[in-house]
Amino acid sequence: MKSVPAGSGPHVLRRMNAASVLSALRQGGPSRIADLMRSTELSRPAVTRAVESLRAEGWVGDGTADRAGDEQGDGQHERHSDGHARLGRPAALLRFRAEAGHVLGVDVGPHKVVAMVADLAGDVVAEHRADTRGLDGRAVLDAIVSVTARAAADVPESSLLSAAVGTPGLVDPETGAVTLAPSIPGWDQIPIAATLRERLACPVTVHNDVNLAVLAERWCGVAAAIDNLVFLQWGARVGTGIVIDGRLHIGAAGAAGELGFLDLQDAGRQSTDSVVRKQDSQASTMGPFERQVGAAAVIELAISQAAQKDDAQLLSLMRAAQADDDAAVLFDAARDGSALAEQIIDTICGRMAGGLAALQLILAPDLIVIGGGLSRAGDQLLDAVDAHLRERTLAPPRLALSTLGDTAVVLGAVRSALSDVESRVLGIS
After folding, report:
1. What is the CATH number of the domain that holds 26?
2. Are strands 170-171 and 112-119 parallel, antiparallel or unpaired?
3. Which residues, other chains included, contact 62 with Cβ-Cβ below 8 Å and sequence gap of 6+?
4. What pLDDT is recorded for position 271?
C-alpha cells in the first residue's frame, strides 16, 4: 500500500488536500463529496481529485447510497416535463477503507506476552497471548516472535504497516534499546526491534510499557481527551506515564515517571535501597518506593501484621496469595469485615499518597488514573488514597480507576502504531 504522495510544488498541495479529505472521512464516517467540501473547505475539483487519488491508492472506497442530497450528483431533485420534481440519482457515499491496512501492538511482561492486531480504525481483529512466567530474556523473545507471527497470520499478507512494543524498564527513545529491565533477566541484551522488523517486514518501535498505558487511557479509557494526565501502574512494580498538554512526556533518556525509584526515606543516611544497575541476574531488583508499596510489600506487611496480631485467618489468606503476588485479596478480606485488613490498607495507601503527592505538587495533573493489579481492589483503594492525598496536597487531584484491565499497555501499543501510520503513511498529523 502506497503512502499519500509527497513532492514539491503542486504535489505538496495535492498531498495536503488528500490528507485533509482522508482525515475528514476517518473522523466523520461515510460522506458525500458535498459533505467533504464542507468539512475541508476545499473546492469540488480539489475534493474530487483527492478522492480519485486516495481511491487509486486503496484508502477510499464506496459506502452505501444516500438519497438525502440536494445537488447534482448528490441526490438532486430533477424537474421533468410534466412539472413534477423527482429525485435524481442517489448520492454516492465514500468511506475510509480501514481494512486496507493493519497495525500490531505488543505488551511484553514478566508474566505474559499479549499481541493485538487492529485495522486502521483501531478496531481489534485478532489477539494472541503467551505465558512468560519464569522465562529469561531470550525465551521471552521467542514467545514474542511466536505470538506476533500468529497475530500477523490473521490478516492479509503485507497489510501490516507498523508495530509497537511495550516493555518494562527504561527504553532509549532514539534507538528503542532497553537500557534497564530489572523484571526480566537479561532483557537489556535482547534486540527486540531488529528481530521483529526482520520477521514482520514493517517498522517496529519499542516503548516503556507504562508510557503506552497512559496513551491508551487517553485514547479509549477513562481519561479520553484529558490533556494533563498521570497514569499510575500499581502492581508488582510501580511506575507512571505522564501526559502534559496533550503530549506524552518521557523526559531525558526516557526516564520520566519512574515513581518506583523514588526514595522517601531519610535522605541523610546511606540508602540500602540504592538502584542496582547490573546487566544480569537482577530480576528481583526493586526501587525504594516499590519496596514500600508494591504488591510484594503489601503482602509482606499483611503477613507480618497478621502474625503479630495472631490473626490466623488473614495470615493463611495472605500466605496463599504470596505465591501469585496477589495483593488484591487483602481488599477482599477488608470487604469481608477484617478490621486488620482495613488498617493495613490504610497504611499502604498512606505510603502511596506520599509518592503521588510529590507528582501532584509538581505536575498538578487534571486526573490520576490508577491501573495495574492493585486497581482490582476498586473504590476502597481509590477512597483511601484520595483521603491521604487531601492531607498532603494544596489542590487534590481527581482520581479514577482504569477500566482497561490488563489490556492498557497493548492498546497503547496499538495507538502508538496507528499514530505512526497516520503520520508516515497517511500524511495525517
Report:
1. 1.10.10.10
2. unpaired
3. 92, 93, 94, 95
4. 41
**Residues of the chain with confidence (pLDDT) below 70:** 1-9, 64-91, 266-284, 429
Nearest to 260 by CA among 235, 241, 295, 287: 287
Largest CA distance in the chain: 98
CA distance 280 to 277: 9
Q: Which amino acid is at 130?
A: A
Compute CA distances 225 → 51, 246, 327, whole Å: 30, 8, 32
Q: What per-residue confidence (pLDDT) applies to 323?
A: 84
Pairing assessment for the beta strands 247-249 and 238-244 based on DSSP bridges: antiparallel
How many domains does one find in the chain? Answer: 3
Please give the Cα distance from 192 to 142 (Å, whole number): 10
Residue 4 included in any domain: no
Answer whether 0.85 is exceeded by the pTM.
Answer: yes
**Residues spanned by the domain of 87:** 10-96
The pLDDT value recorded for residue 1 is 54
- My answer on whether 138 and 242 are in the same domain is no
What DSSP letter does each residue of 177-188 carry, written as one string? -EEE-TTSTTGG
Residues 6+ away with beta carbon under 8 Å from 196: 106, 144, 145, 148, 163, 165, 204
Cite the DSSP H helix spans in 247-400: 290-293, 295-308, 312-322, 329-335, 339-363, 379-392
* 82 DSSP assignment: T
Write out pLDDT tens, residues 260-308: 999 987 544 444 343 333 333 333 578 999 999 999 999 999 999 999 9
C-alpha cell of residue 340: 486488620
